[in-house]
Amino acid sequence: MTRLFEILFPKYIWRIKTTEKKIYLTFDDGPIPEVTEWVLEQLALFNAKATFFCVGENILKHPEIFEKIVNLGHSVANHTQNHLKGWKTETELYLDNFHLCESSIVSIKKEKSNLFRPPYGQLKRKQASEILKTHKIWMWSVLTKDYDANFNEGRCLENAIKKTGNGSIVLFHDSLKAQKNLKYVLPKYLEHFSKKGYRFEIMEL
Ligand SMILES: [Zn+2]
Q: 0.85 cut: is pTM over it?
Protein backbone atom coordinates (compact mmCIF):
# COMPACT_ATOMS: atom_id res chain seq x y z
CA MET A 1 0.00 0.00 0.00
CA THR A 2 1.40 3.34 -0.94
CA ARG A 3 0.64 6.12 1.44
CA LEU A 4 -0.13 9.71 0.50
CA PHE A 5 3.21 11.16 1.60
CA GLU A 6 5.07 8.59 -0.47
CA ILE A 7 3.33 10.06 -3.49
CA LEU A 8 3.91 13.64 -2.34
CA PHE A 9 7.60 13.10 -1.61
CA PRO A 10 8.82 10.58 -4.20
CA LYS A 11 12.46 11.66 -3.84
CA TYR A 12 12.56 10.33 -0.30
CA ILE A 13 13.06 6.63 0.32
CA TRP A 14 10.15 5.16 2.24
CA ARG A 15 10.79 1.45 1.73
CA ILE A 16 13.07 -0.82 -0.29
CA LYS A 17 11.46 -2.65 -3.17
CA THR A 18 12.32 -6.30 -2.78
CA THR A 19 10.67 -9.69 -2.86
CA GLU A 20 13.27 -11.01 -0.42
CA LYS A 21 12.67 -11.33 3.29
CA LYS A 22 14.73 -8.31 4.26
CA ILE A 23 14.00 -5.74 6.93
CA TYR A 24 15.84 -2.47 7.36
CA LEU A 25 15.97 -1.51 11.02
CA THR A 26 16.79 2.08 11.87
CA PHE A 27 17.53 3.69 15.24
CA ASP A 28 17.28 7.45 15.61
CA ASP A 29 18.62 10.01 18.10
CA GLY A 30 21.58 8.19 19.73
CA PRO A 31 24.17 7.27 20.52
CA ILE A 32 23.60 7.26 24.29
CA PRO A 33 25.05 4.86 26.87
CA GLU A 34 21.70 4.01 28.50
CA VAL A 35 20.14 2.52 25.38
CA THR A 36 22.47 2.21 22.40
CA GLU A 37 24.79 -0.41 23.91
CA TRP A 38 21.80 -2.53 24.84
CA VAL A 39 20.48 -2.24 21.26
CA LEU A 40 23.86 -3.40 19.92
CA GLU A 41 23.74 -6.46 22.18
CA GLN A 42 20.24 -7.35 21.02
CA LEU A 43 21.16 -6.98 17.36
CA ALA A 44 24.23 -9.19 17.85
CA LEU A 45 22.08 -11.99 19.27
CA PHE A 46 20.20 -12.19 15.99
CA ASN A 47 23.11 -11.37 13.71
CA ALA A 48 21.16 -8.29 12.69
CA LYS A 49 22.55 -5.18 11.06
CA ALA A 50 20.91 -1.77 11.39
CA THR A 51 21.26 1.86 10.41
CA PHE A 52 21.77 4.44 13.17
CA PHE A 53 20.67 7.99 12.43
CA CYS A 54 22.89 9.77 14.92
CA VAL A 55 22.56 13.21 16.44
CA GLY A 56 25.96 14.91 16.08
CA GLU A 57 26.08 16.26 19.62
CA ASN A 58 25.56 12.74 20.95
CA ILE A 59 28.37 11.46 18.74
CA LEU A 60 30.68 14.06 20.30
CA LYS A 61 29.51 13.20 23.83
CA HIS A 62 29.84 9.43 23.34
CA PRO A 63 32.45 8.84 20.65
CA GLU A 64 33.31 5.39 22.02
CA ILE A 65 29.75 4.17 21.47
CA PHE A 66 29.64 5.66 18.00
CA GLU A 67 32.89 3.88 17.19
CA LYS A 68 31.45 0.62 18.48
CA ILE A 69 28.44 0.95 16.16
CA VAL A 70 30.79 1.44 13.20
CA ASN A 71 33.13 -1.38 14.20
CA LEU A 72 30.26 -3.84 14.52
CA GLY A 73 29.42 -3.27 10.86
CA HIS A 74 26.28 -1.21 11.26
CA SER A 75 25.59 1.81 9.14
CA VAL A 76 25.76 5.32 10.62
CA ALA A 77 23.94 8.27 9.15
CA ASN A 78 23.18 11.95 9.62
CA HIS A 79 20.29 13.19 11.79
CA THR A 80 21.55 16.81 12.20
CA GLN A 81 23.90 18.04 14.92
CA ASN A 82 21.18 19.24 17.34
CA HIS A 83 18.00 17.47 16.24
CA LEU A 84 16.47 20.52 14.57
CA LYS A 85 12.93 20.95 13.33
CA GLY A 86 13.16 21.64 9.61
CA TRP A 87 9.95 23.64 9.27
CA LYS A 88 10.93 26.00 12.09
CA THR A 89 14.55 26.48 11.08
CA GLU A 90 15.89 28.85 8.49
CA THR A 91 17.40 26.88 5.62
CA GLU A 92 20.94 28.20 5.94
CA LEU A 93 21.01 27.41 9.64
CA TYR A 94 19.54 23.98 9.02
CA LEU A 95 22.12 23.13 6.39
CA ASP A 96 24.95 24.33 8.66
CA ASN A 97 23.64 21.98 11.33
CA PHE A 98 23.42 19.14 8.82
CA HIS A 99 27.07 19.76 7.84
CA LEU A 100 28.11 19.94 11.50
CA CYS A 101 26.68 16.47 12.03
CA GLU A 102 28.58 15.27 8.98
CA SER A 103 31.80 16.66 10.52
CA SER A 104 31.03 14.84 13.77
CA ILE A 105 30.65 11.59 11.84
CA VAL A 106 33.85 12.15 9.87
CA SER A 107 35.83 13.09 13.01
CA ILE A 108 35.49 9.49 14.15
CA LYS A 109 34.63 7.36 11.15
CA LYS A 110 36.98 9.23 8.79
CA GLU A 111 34.37 8.84 6.10
CA LYS A 112 31.22 10.76 5.18
CA SER A 113 27.76 9.31 5.50
CA ASN A 114 25.46 9.26 2.52
CA LEU A 115 22.14 8.89 4.28
CA PHE A 116 20.09 11.51 6.04
CA ARG A 117 16.88 11.43 8.02
CA PRO A 118 15.26 14.71 9.06
CA PRO A 119 14.26 14.89 12.75
CA TYR A 120 10.45 14.74 13.09
CA GLY A 121 10.31 13.94 9.38
CA GLN A 122 10.28 17.71 8.79
CA LEU A 123 12.09 19.22 5.85
CA LYS A 124 11.45 22.28 3.69
CA ARG A 125 11.79 21.74 -0.04
CA LYS A 126 14.88 23.92 -0.28
CA GLN A 127 16.53 22.05 2.59
CA ALA A 128 15.70 18.76 0.90
CA SER A 129 16.97 19.78 -2.51
CA GLU A 130 20.34 20.81 -1.08
CA ILE A 131 20.73 17.66 1.00
CA LEU A 132 19.69 15.44 -1.89
CA LYS A 133 22.78 16.62 -3.79
CA THR A 134 24.96 14.49 -1.53
CA HIS A 135 22.68 12.25 0.52
CA LYS A 136 19.77 9.91 0.11
CA ILE A 137 16.90 10.87 2.38
CA TRP A 138 15.56 7.90 4.26
CA MET A 139 12.13 8.04 5.80
CA TRP A 140 10.31 4.94 7.08
CA SER A 141 7.41 2.63 6.34
CA VAL A 142 6.91 1.34 9.89
CA LEU A 143 6.55 3.86 12.69
CA THR A 144 6.78 1.83 15.89
CA LYS A 145 5.83 4.81 18.13
CA ASP A 146 8.32 3.46 20.65
CA TYR A 147 8.82 7.06 21.83
CA ASP A 148 5.22 7.29 23.02
CA ALA A 149 5.32 6.13 26.65
CA ASN A 150 1.50 6.11 26.73
CA PHE A 151 1.47 3.53 23.96
CA ASN A 152 1.23 0.13 25.64
CA GLU A 153 4.27 -2.15 25.00
CA GLY A 154 2.15 -5.03 23.77
CA ARG A 155 0.30 -2.89 21.27
CA CYS A 156 3.54 -1.32 20.18
CA LEU A 157 4.91 -4.79 19.35
CA GLU A 158 1.71 -5.93 17.68
CA ASN A 159 1.58 -2.80 15.53
CA ALA A 160 5.24 -3.11 14.51
CA ILE A 161 4.80 -6.77 13.52
CA LYS A 162 1.58 -6.16 11.61
CA LYS A 163 3.05 -3.33 9.54
CA THR A 164 6.34 -5.01 8.64
CA GLY A 165 6.87 -6.75 5.30
CA ASN A 166 9.58 -7.32 2.70
CA GLY A 167 11.76 -4.23 2.40
CA SER A 168 10.22 -2.36 5.32
CA ILE A 169 12.19 0.49 6.84
CA VAL A 170 11.41 0.34 10.54
CA LEU A 171 11.83 3.33 12.81
CA PHE A 172 12.99 2.77 16.39
CA HIS A 173 14.75 5.21 18.71
CA ASP A 174 17.79 4.61 20.90
CA SER A 175 16.62 7.38 23.22
CA LEU A 176 15.60 7.64 26.87
CA LYS A 177 12.05 8.45 25.87
CA ALA A 178 11.72 5.26 23.84
CA GLN A 179 13.51 2.87 26.14
CA LYS A 180 10.45 1.54 27.99
CA ASN A 181 8.77 0.35 24.79
CA LEU A 182 11.98 -0.46 22.95
CA LYS A 183 13.30 -2.79 25.63
CA TYR A 184 10.08 -4.76 25.51
CA VAL A 185 9.52 -4.71 21.76
CA LEU A 186 12.95 -5.11 20.14
CA PRO A 187 13.94 -8.59 21.40
CA LYS A 188 10.50 -10.00 20.58
CA TYR A 189 10.41 -8.28 17.21
CA LEU A 190 13.85 -9.65 16.28
CA GLU A 191 12.87 -13.12 17.39
CA HIS A 192 9.54 -13.07 15.56
CA PHE A 193 11.01 -12.15 12.18
CA SER A 194 14.17 -14.25 12.56
CA LYS A 195 11.98 -17.32 13.04
CA LYS A 196 10.11 -16.42 9.88
CA GLY A 197 13.37 -16.37 7.94
CA TYR A 198 13.84 -12.61 7.63
CA ARG A 199 17.23 -10.95 7.64
CA PHE A 200 17.98 -7.52 9.06
CA GLU A 201 20.17 -5.57 6.71
CA ILE A 202 21.77 -2.25 5.94
CA MET A 203 21.33 -0.69 2.56
CA GLU A 204 24.24 -1.14 0.16
CA LEU A 205 24.84 2.12 -1.61
ZN1 LIG B 1 15.02 12.08 15.75
A: yes
In angstroms, the CA 201 to CA 39 distance is: 15
CA 14 from centroid of its chain's CA atoms:
12
Fold of 4-200: TIM Barrel (3.20.20)
Domain definitions of the chain by residue range: 4-200
φ/ψ (deg, to 5) at 39: -60, -45
Does residue 1 have a pLDDT over 80? Answer: no
Give CA–CA dist 128/149, Å, rounded.
31
Cα dihedral across residues 173, 174, 176, 181: positive or negative: positive
User: What are the pLDDT digits (tens) for 62-113?
Assistant: 999 999 999 999 999 999 999 999 999 999 999 999 999 999 999 999 999 9
114-139 pLDDT, tens per residue? 999 999 999 999 999 999 999 999 99
Q: How far does the centroid of ligand 1 lie from the alpha carbon of residue 172, in Å?
A: 10
CA of 79 to the centre of ligand 1 (A): 7
Ligand 1 centroid to Cα of residue 39, in Å, is 16
Closest CA to 46 of 201, 191, 202: 191
The rounded Å distance from CA 78 to ligand 1 centre is 10
All residues with CB under 5 Å from ion ligand 1 = 28-29, 119
